[in-house]
Amino acid sequence: MTLQQLQYAVTIAEMGSINKAANELYVSQSALSCAMRDLEKEIHTTVFMRTNRGIIVTADGEVFLGYARQILEQYRLMEYKYLKTETRKHKFSVSMQHYTFAVQAFINTVKKYGADEFEFAVYETQTHTVIQNVKTLKSEIGVLYLNDFNRDVLNKIFYDSDVEYVPLFECPISVYLWREHPLAQYSSISMDDLASYPCLSFEQGVGNSFYYAEEVMSAYPYRQIIKTSDRATMLNLMVGLNGYTLCCGIICEELNGEYYCSVPLATQEKMTIGYIKKKQSALSNVGNEFISELKKFDPDLA
Hints:
Helices cover 39% and strands 23% of the residues. The protein is an alpha/beta fold. The strands form four sheets. Strands 4-3-5-12-6 form a five-stranded mixed beta sheet, with helices on both faces. β3 (90-96), α5 and β4 (118-124) form a beta-alpha-beta unit.
């Protein structure tokens, strides 16, 4: 097993195609396929399933690629420290559910550290992908929530994914809607009040499950529900259809403007905002700064 084979494997996984990876690596497709067959034979593990539509990473392959990325990152650190004369940009990546306040925390972190020495990345994505990105070290931190409904299931998934969950703060559940919504001026909104309006929910793709839902009360028998994969589209649906979603209620007017608001939901249930990181792995300095920025949105500090 060589570093070159590890790089080949990681590139194939990222490109989703041996042909595309071959073009990216400037090697022939046959040479790349041969290198992967030799690697899989040596490690006695099938990393990729070949299909007519491309390649699929196996469950064992995900574990192997996680280790491969760690080795390649360590090699790059040594290479830049001992072999390169130019300044190396450090990488920092965050994955998150669709939280505007987490995006604002990321923005504040980037402003503090600047982009001259860092290569930043942020992925606002599905719950399954948030966990997967941290598991494979594509992201150092993943931001998501737990509540009484999903806690046991997600904690089991965290354990199996070799990541740990760190709680930050608790939030009461709120109804998020636009300011011209008929219920926007209510001091509290019940589920009965919401019955005639469409509930908006983020699509979870292959990880589609009540436990993966970004919105609390995902198993509630809604009369109307509309799925979307994009936060901007969800905001448009709030305006066009008087739709709503259930969330932590933390409003970030710097990014969303003043056209949306949150109203407390008539329930005692709460949700815990927190983050996941790789087990037994210390956060970087920039990672700790990002967490400090997140903590500023704690409702108890408002």
